[in-house]
Backbone:
């Protein structure tokens, strides 16, 4: 009997009941017998050498088990530097500190309050050094964050792009297509603008936490991580152990958004547990997260040549990424996002320089969108400005330039399964773009704007899956994808269920545990639905094939209507046995040429997202009120339309916060002024538009599982420039730096009116 | 490069360091947030109906979370009866109690001491019923332990042998080969004896413990269990849930010996956790283990016809197994051991009746040897008495009758890979049997004795294994075999390492967790080395084949000398991926004919063990001092000679305790008089023989992994009769009931001397 189709169903999330009843497992709730709490002593300065650490008072405090510094760490890990791109980040600061809040020492106690109090007693003397904070200045500054670069990490290709000795340049990616200089020389008109994005934080509401148990022979790390396989490999490397002596398990995550990727607390808790010979747990406060990982501040200079038909003939992009003190995955952001910096447009001549810089800011890494929102912010503001200058309708101007199916993208990769034009058209249709738009009266002006972005998926990365069938026919999927709220458990259940003809609700998803769930690169970059989805689909097919083989072995004719449980009973004489399907998935990929950045296979799939906004600006206060936020995306064929819709809306709202509200404010010494939710404002219900609409265009990713591809980031792409474009539409001023605060808008309005307030 | 051979190495146990440093995980140490302790209210009588349970005072006690009886259990599990053979055992007593110590209610509190104190406040009123305790009397007694039999369980074949309505017979196994009546009629001489074995306990030094966490959707049970897959299936059946909603995980076990098989506390903690909506842990005291599971007391009547050449021509065996109040796996003991009751001799005409009886004793189940030691006790005492009567040397008498390779056993199954004759000869050689034996002087007499037993393996049972290889080439084995001290982790590591050409020390064994380790029938009956060993070997071969396929895919010539880690790097471009080998193993088997008990394929392999003892008996006190205990066994080709040797010695010492020291003593009302180690004596160092020697004969189990087969029980077989035979040899008296206490020996000596003391 054929069950109803399991993919395409808006099945509620499998874990919904466990979460709303408070029974879902989070590492924060985990306690182990004999466990110690670790609290960190952090650097109060942005850059300096450590002269002396005095931990005597802390060690003397009753209940303190130990105070650990890099000296102790290096007794067990001689080279305690980690990182996905480069091995540049020490477990605890060694000799110097490079950013505000950098961990310098850890205090261990069975009582967390005692550890916290003792941490206050640790005195660290520093010789302060001048800091470098701006990404553009960092490119040429004599102030060096790292005296020596460490270009060795997981990704071989980054090594070759990495680092200029004696500079703060961590990595330089360049792309050269066509002849940009000639095209600019021949251009009808040339437009050039610069745009800046501010540093922001991921703010997962479950702060980072990790707990390690260790013996001489093995370590088990329980961690709120998006990348258990990476953690396993990196901890094994640090310890000089084989992978099979390192076990990493995760539970549900209270959000990740890129903050919980690679190594965050895992190396620290491992070192602490080995030194203390006790389980050690470190859980950060919300404030500490601000010092741990951020999103890249970014400066983009973008210049386009346009012919008389409104066709863009050349584009040059220069992108400076503020990577903070340690590279984390910044070099990959620089390269992977860099090659799309010219936008989803069909441009013959493109030059891109995308540069990762070290600064004395807290490290920047992956954050939902992986650099793309910063680039779209630039190129779609720029696009709007050009259309405005050409007096072309912004939809029409995009239509003339849009990158269509079968045409080569800047890298030379021919576009396939990227419904960019369809997304643009559907957005225009939803906004009734052709109809007259009500402009408002009085000081409150109405405007509308659109923006359009695209993103490549990270590649090449592998996912491996197990699909097991128990003797009663019930099914479990063992995979390393971390459900951090995005609904991956539900998607994987739907895929396995579709193949095995089961109700998706009946499939059990086993959470990552590297002892038993096979390798998965990480849960990031909207890769799981495509990569792990393909692996799960193939593993389920393998299990289905094994069931068919079992039936044949039992002498049943093909297609015989025998229940799975009955097959097991006949084979084993009782309820016994397990059918195990396995598969690995690795998409094909061609690395870009190092000199030109060109490749004919840049990505396994493209993500496309567009945003339309309608808003009001109070021209007397600068206050913006969003009336309508429309997201249209190509996600291939949605596996679960309702989850896809909420993913698109959630991404849009997150980016809305980064556009209108959020900003990490540093003073000139690199001190963070607002590391709390009292001062760092994230969107609340009152900040949301009255209407939020998200939808997908009819599409199929032919290489994806049941036509699906990633969706977690596409809603972020266009939000910032769509809002800026709408503000321009409403009140005639152009903002080029995020966030778009009432103050900034107000100043721009006054400046446009010639008022001196703007100059303050 | 070829590593040294990994099988055949006396590798120290992988977990040795973790255990001696106190870092090995045991469920006893596990605590979960919000956990409650459950303490049991137990029946003080052996048989009676429950009139009333008054839990008011207990419920009123501060700190008590709940008092649970069967009434509450049945709200969530309408038919709360479990058991591997029959579903006859209630989670908590329903309407009546059937043995001393039967659980009637459970008290839950966050503090174990409060739960314990409150349990004392629960008042239960009973209407006492007459009890039946003796297995032979139970066969015909009007006192019925169960008014209705419940012959439904895991094993379909047992149903057909199960239960006579209106009796205490749980199962009757019969075997009929040749024409026993005619052979007896024609016999030169006929010998008949009866032997009794006492009830004893497994005494794992880690008492039983289980901890359940449950939601409406799933339950996780952490348990010191030898049979996680069985627990999963049985709990799923009780709850009416699919298997994939039940997760069972184990850690190291502090001994099992059969006590921790099937359901012990798992159904109880599951019900309690579901009712309390909190994690619940129940850990038994040593005393409580006496009420939970025991070894079958047993009466054997054995009769042989012998011709003038000293050849046994016929044998009739009647065996009554005292199963206690619930069947547990007793019916399987009755059948599986039953068919070997005639011993390892080549006898044309055999009749066996093996009967499982219900009595009002605590339940009896599997214990190392699975009934065989009780049978060998009878047939090897009997063999010695016949040899003595025929004035034949006991080795020579056995030589004339021994079951040789290629000859049919009583079931008709032709013997293969059973080195019975070689074991006998090697034992005689080690004992220098042909040489004069020093008899001692004065009141201390010396004697020697031998005995020989064999055992079939349980069949058909399946094992499924996963062998995974991480991207650095390190290997893990995921399997459901429970290492309870027998060294199975080490054996599995050696098997996988041999196939994959790795050092066995480098292989990680992942402990059972039914979410991720595939099905295994159970860790019992010496089946793991053979069954799981074969599964692991095949899974490792599958992994090896996949590595070879990967090398071929990468264009490497066959046999190219490329490291595994390099294969992964070439395939994935970095340290990534997992190779997964899988295999299931199910030996062939032919079930016995229900009427005759005959089959041509009774077992996947035979275990053979022989014991020789030299001892002194103080004829003035009856005190026995063992001088030498020699075990010789056929274990196929040992995977780890040192572990095999310690397994044989350990088994012999355990059986030595059951022979000389241990006995559960019941009064006439069924009260257990000695449920503590103060009164129930297990062997200490002072009880051990001066010389303990264990060795294996050169042999190979051709169907086993690298020629190996099970070894955990073979050392138990011959111990009791070898000692009784040696006592007879020393002081001329024959004991037919276990244990062989000084008092019993003294009385027998005095009785032989015509002294009335013996009659008391």
Residues:
């Amino acid at each position: 009997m054929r069950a109803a189709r399991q993919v395409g169903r808006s099945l509620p999330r499998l874990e919904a009941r466990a979460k709303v009843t408070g029974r879902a497992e989070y590492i924060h709730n985990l306690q182990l017998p004999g466990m110690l709490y670790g609290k960190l002593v952090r650097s109060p300065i942005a850059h300096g050498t450590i002269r002396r650490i005095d931990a005597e008072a802390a060690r003397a405090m009753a209940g303190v088990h130990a105070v650990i510094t890099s000296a102790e760490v290096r007794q067990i890990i001689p080279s305690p530097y980690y990182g996905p791109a480069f091995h540049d980040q020490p477990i605890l600061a060694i000799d110097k500190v490079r950013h505000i809040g950098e961990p310098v020492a850890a205090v261990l106690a069975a009582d967390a309050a005692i550890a916290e109090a003792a941490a206050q007693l640790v005195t660290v003397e520093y010789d302060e050094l001048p800091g470098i904070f701006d990404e553009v200045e960092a490119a040429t500054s004599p102030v060096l964050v790292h005296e020596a670069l460490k270009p060795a990490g997981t990704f071989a290709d980054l090594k070759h792009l990495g680092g200029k000795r004696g500079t703060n340049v961590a990595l330089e990616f360049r792309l050269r297509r066509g002849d940009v200089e000639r095209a600019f020389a021949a251009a009808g008109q040339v437009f050039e603008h610069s745009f800046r994005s501010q540093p922001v934080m991921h703010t997962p509401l479950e702060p980072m936490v990790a707990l390690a148990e260790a013996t001489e022979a093995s370590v088990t790390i329980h961690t709120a991580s998006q990348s258990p396989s990476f953690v396993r490999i990196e901890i094994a490397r640090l310890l000089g152990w084989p992978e099979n002596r390192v076990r990493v398990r995760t539970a549900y995550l209270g959000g990740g958004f890129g903050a919980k990727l690679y190594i965050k607390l895992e190396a620290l808790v491992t070192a602490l547990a080995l030194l203390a010979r006790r389980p050690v747990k470190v859980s950060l406060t919300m404030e500490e997260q601000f010092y741990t990982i951020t999103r890249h501040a970014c400066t983009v200079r973008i210049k386009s040549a346009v012919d008389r038909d409104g066709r863009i003939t050349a584009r040059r992009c220069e992108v400076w990424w503020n990577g903070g003190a340690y590279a984390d995955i910044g070099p990959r952001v620089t390269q992977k996002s860099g090659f799309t910096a010219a936008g989803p447009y069909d441009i013959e001549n493109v030059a891109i320089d995308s540069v990762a810089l070290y600064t004395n800011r807290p490290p920047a890494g992956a954050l939902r969108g992986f650099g793309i929102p910063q680039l779209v912010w630039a190129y779609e503001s720029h696009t709007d400005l050009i259309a405005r200058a050409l007096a072309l309708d912004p939809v029409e101007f995009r239509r003339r330039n849009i990158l269509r199916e079968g045409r080569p993208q800047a890298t030379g990769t021919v576009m396939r399964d990227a419904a960019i034009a369809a997304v643009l058209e559907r957005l225009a249709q939803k906004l009734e773009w052709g109809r007259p738009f009500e402009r408002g009266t009085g000081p409150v002006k109405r405007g509308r704007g659109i923006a359009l972005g695209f993103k490549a998926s990270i590649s090449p990365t592998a996912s491996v899956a197990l699909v097991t069938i128990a003797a009663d026919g019930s099914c479990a999927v063992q995979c390393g994808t971390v459900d951090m709220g995005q609904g991956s458990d539900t998607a994987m259940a739907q895929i396995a269920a579709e193949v095995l003809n089961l109700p998706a609700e009946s499939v059990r998803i086993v959470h990552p545990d590297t002892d038993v769930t096979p390798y998965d690169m990480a849960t990031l970059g909207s890769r799981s639905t495509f990569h792990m989805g393909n692996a799960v689909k193939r593993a389920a097919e393998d299990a289905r094939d094994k069931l068919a083989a079992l039936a044949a072995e039992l002498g049943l004719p093909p297609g015989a209507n025998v229940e799975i449980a009955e097959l097991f009973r006949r084979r084993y004489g009782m309820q016994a046995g397990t059918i195990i399907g396995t598969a690995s998935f690795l998409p094909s990929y061609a690395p870009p040429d190092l000199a030109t950045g060109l490749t004919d296979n840049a990505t396994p799939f493209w993500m496309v997202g567009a945003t339309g906004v309608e808003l009001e600006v109070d021209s007397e206060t600068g206050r913006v009120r969003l009336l309508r936020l429309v997201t249209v995306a190509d996600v291939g064929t949605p596996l679960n339309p309702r989850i896809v819709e909420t993913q698109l809306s959630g991404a849009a709202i997150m980016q809305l916060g980064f556009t209108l509200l959020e900003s990490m404010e540093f003073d000139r010494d690199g001190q963070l002024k607002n590391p709390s939710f009292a001062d760092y404002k994230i969107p609340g219900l009152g900040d949301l538009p009255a209407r939020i609409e998200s939808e997908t265009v009819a599409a199929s990713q032919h290489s994806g599982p049941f036509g699906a591809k990633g969706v977690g980031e596409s809603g972020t792409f266009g939000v910032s420039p769509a809002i800026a474009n709408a503000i321009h539409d409403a009140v005639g001023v152009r903002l080029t730096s995020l966030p778009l605060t009432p103050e900034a808008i107000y100043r721009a309005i006054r400046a446009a009116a010639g008022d001196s307030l703007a100059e303050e």
Summary: The mean pLDDT of chain B is 95.
